[in-house]
Each structure stands twice: as C-alpha cells, then as structure tokens.
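## retry 2 of 3
previous attempt timed out at serialization; input unchanged, resubmitting
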Amino acid sequence: MITYLNEKYDEEFVYAGYVEPGLMDEETLYARSLSDKKQRAVTVIVDDNGDFTDDYQGASVADYCEQLIGDYVRSYFDSDEIGYLMFINTNRINSMNEVENDDFHWDIGVQNVFHFSEEAITPEDLEKFAPEFAKFLYKHKITSDNKLNIVKNMDIKNLTYANYSQSFKYENLVYFYDIGINNKSVVISKSTKNQSEYYSTDEYINKELN
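## retry succeeded, writing output
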C-alpha cells in the first residue's frame, strides 16, 4: 500500500497507521508524505476486489478548510498576531466540487491548534469566543478537535509544525480551552475545570443560539 502511493505520486510516503480488514472495517493504511510539511494523513483503502483508492488529492480541500478557519479566527479577533496550525485526521472529500456553500458534510476531521499571546488575549476572551467558534464549525460541518492556547515567552507568529509542542510546556502555557465537535457530540476541557463537559451537538448549539 505504501508502494502504491510512492509509485502513483512519485513521492516518498511513510507509515502512520493501519486498520486490519474486518466485518465492519475495510483494510486501511494511514501514511504521510515526507514532502508535506503539514504532516497530513493520507488514507489508502483496499476494496473487495483488491483495488486501492486514496485521498491524497484531497489536499486542496484541506488547504481550503484551513484557510476558511484561519480567516474566521483572525477576523474575529481582528488580529494577525495568532499562531495557527491544522492537522488532518481524516478526509473523505477528494474535490472542491463536493464542498458546496462551504459545507464539508462532517467528512473532514481536523485538529486545530491556535496560540494567542497573553498580551493580546485573555481567558475571558476565549470563553466568549469558543461558543461562537463552535457555531462556525457546526455551520460548515467540520469535525474538529480545537486547542485554543494562551501562551507566553513564545514567538507565536513563527509557530511551525516542528516547534508547536513547546507551547504545551508548563512554563509557556497560560490558559487552555479545548473544544471538540462532531455531528454527535461536543466535548469541552479548560484550565478552570477539573473535568470535561459533554453535550450532544444539537443540545450545545441550540443552547448557545438561545
């Protein structure tokens, strides 16, 4: 399956995960291209006939999703002083033709990591922003795990996939607000709570709309 990717795209891919075939699961390989600095996962599936299909050409969809989310957050805070990285977990959309009216149909799954400077953003700002962000993700049907971090002693504008883990160190992290959303549930974790909060998606969105 790795060889299939290497030969089809004339690039080098490395192993990232594997699901064995079963009653409910197709044989699936997860890989990453060494040329992709965003470290996006590529999915290869083997059908009943032994033929391979993959979602590598869906990278343009992922790039558009990243731009849509990044532009929304920067516009909300009216600032470019925000560090942002997006990781792709799953993507079942291979063409922008399938993203009509910016609707991703819950068929893309991402992890968004946002870093905000403690000089510019307060915990209260994040508390106010998070529900609005959830409504935005719900509107566009983007499955996502979102890490909203207020950090210090970091040059957030130079945030990269190589150095982003530094923000999770105790000495750099001032406040965090994590919110995960899919078509069924919303899960919230934050610095001020010892336990996560769980909601059905419709319950949470309806609560925030009222």
